[in-house]
Write a structure and sequence with these properties.
The protein is an alpha+beta fold. The protein folds into two domains: 31 residues; 152 residues, Muramoyl-pentapeptide Carboxypeptidase, domain 2 (2-Layer Sandwich). Helices cover 44% and strands 10% of the residues. The chain has a four-stranded antiparallel beta sheet. Strands 1-2 form a two-stranded antiparallel sheet. The N and C termini lie far apart (67 Å). The chain binds zinc ion. Zinc ion binds next to strand 4.
Length: 227
Amino acid sequence: MKKKQKKSFNKIFILIILFIAIIGFYKSGNIDIKVYAEAANNTVNEETNMKDYIILVNKDNPLPDDYKVELEEYDNHLVSKDIISDLDDMYKNAKKDGVNLNINTSYRDKKEQQEILDRRIKLYVQEGLNKKDTEEKALTEVQLPGCSEHETGLAIDFSNPNKPEDNEPMWNWLRENSYKFGFILRYPKDKIDITNVTNEEWHFRYVGKEVAKEMKEKNICLEEYLN
Ligand SMILES: [Zn+2]
């Protein structure tokens, strides 16, 4: 009996040491990853008890100032940690079909968003557009800071600047398959009048598998889904 007790004590001891070692390894491996908050703001759906990822972010619906997202690195880019597992699944399944997914942009903060908008406006000014047209045109392509989905960590621009020939197959595959992993093409060509955003073949947004499937089947965009 005593021997048995000692054995199980040893087992527990080893488990505790293992646990500490795993935590230590995890922490040291993530040291350079920016974690902005303990929990994301995504609400929990009472019916399914799952997190909702259907937050609408556009020029009329800016993110709340206190919106926080816990970020983690995937493929050298920061995304919401909540989407990592589905994103990884999607990468692996695309690979099986001979498609190499590549993230060009994912999370960016308000400051980066402002810089992108400023650059775009400057470009159009250089092209000779007047101020009003410049801003209007730029804002159909670049969202105001606080109004970009990229600030949620749930949006990803897929493209490969180093291998542009990969882009077309990548976008075709994503358009057909990304819903299985909870992602939707956010600004489809036939919904420009609703989203007010030009067709961005590369911009995919995580909404969760159930919602993505429903949107795909009904061919509706997020604005339509939420209405
Ligand atoms: Zn984008």
